[in-house]
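Co-fold these.
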Amino acid sequence: MFIIFMIGCLVSSTYALDGADVVLSCSFVEEGGGMMGGMGGGGLFSRTPATLVLRDLPVDPDSDSALDSVTPFDPPEKPSADDLIFEVKGSSVEIPDADTLLHADCNEQEVNCEISHYIPRGSDPDAPPSHFIGSLQVEGGGISLTMVLQVLTNEEAASETLPLIQSKLELPLSQSGTLLTEVVFVVFSRSPSLSTPLGGDAQLDCGFRQRNSSHVGGLGLEWRLQHRGSGRKVLEMTKVEEGEEAGAGPTVSAGRDGASVDPALAVEEGNVSMSLTKLKVVDEGTYICTVTSGMFQTQQIVQLHIDQPPIVSLSEEMVVFQDEPAQRLSCHCKSYYPLDVQVEWLSLSSSEAEPIEISDGASLSSHRQHSDGTYSVTAQLTLRLSAHPPGTTVTCRVAHQALSAEVDVSTTVRLAPETDDNLYAIIVSLLVVIVGTVFFYQVMGGTN
Ligand SMILES: *[C@@H]1O[C@H](CO)[C@@H](O)[C@H](O)[C@H]1NC(C)=O
Ligand SMILES: *[C@@H]1O[C@H](CO)[C@@H](O)[C@H](O)[C@H]1NC(C)=O
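Predicted complex below.
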């Protein structure tokens, strides 16, 4: 029966009377893979296939017909104690952007889903599991959610048949073989990954939703930056108790100039997004938004990438050949980030229809890093008149992830005009005559 959830679409949904159901294939993750065939070693995680069913998500009645074609959630015909089906009943806590989960098409947008045991702050870790944490990420830049699920006490338990007990969790299942839960706390980000140019501003999106009753114990926020193995606190908002006077509201302390959170938005709307101004390369990394509310604390990750396109220029506006057989041409790519840049040389002579790539005589300098963290590189090309006759257009083409399209800079190969040549010859002969004459008189004078 369980196989049905695992194959085919990762996401399926159906209209119920007052909303739609979303069925997600998930992994139930546990620490210590001791049971996994003796692979040994501590600290491993074991994964068990699981299903998350979000019931009765509100549907926008005007939404498109794509939802019509999907199959409904059917509870297993014969409930099994080995199935791990987490069923989330219409909760008092709103699941933000639930419709994006409904629309995440099974072929184009996957939803990563992991569920694990959650121990609320201050509760007994050895007590039977009462909470789980589910993290969902819509791939390709969609919403990312971390939700705390609280196990509902089974009302059906009082019925004549004894409830099935889930074999792994040792918790009673509903009549249809699912573990009934309710969302009590959600931390989410609508843009878990963003790119910004140097010097720009960014808003790292993070928000939370909670049950009214979970205010007790106060609200706290911390933003940390984790990059290349080191971490630092970027911002902290002190805990604020519900009912505190507005004047005595939360204080925000920032560990970086230009980092800010609006405390009023945080308290009133659950919006703990952090603004950063004048971004530098050192601001790049993984930001962790940790929201603490009463007994719950969870996190959301926002990736910030710095994306700065190169400034591209050529050493010569025009390549003019005199008598020399070869000339050097340089293409400078300045102040870009990140490091990866592709430079290629193309030539288009009057006899060709399409530009062709030049590989002979091309070389790349090593990357230089500036104090602001950006990079520069110079590509060099040795041009030979024999290979690139006058009239040939030589192009340096640069590709970089911060550029929406490749950048081309071009120059043309020319021969020095004849007249200049004659003038040059005259000047040279005149010089020879003058120098020769002076030398002759000096020699003659010396012998006298
Ligand atoms: C927070 O507020 C900003 C500005 O109004 C908005 O752009 C953003 O979407 C909000 N984020 C959340 C998580 O509510
Ligand atoms: C939560 O509190 C608000 C006002 O404080 C109230 O309007 C709302 O009905 C409450 N919701 C629940 C689920 O208790």
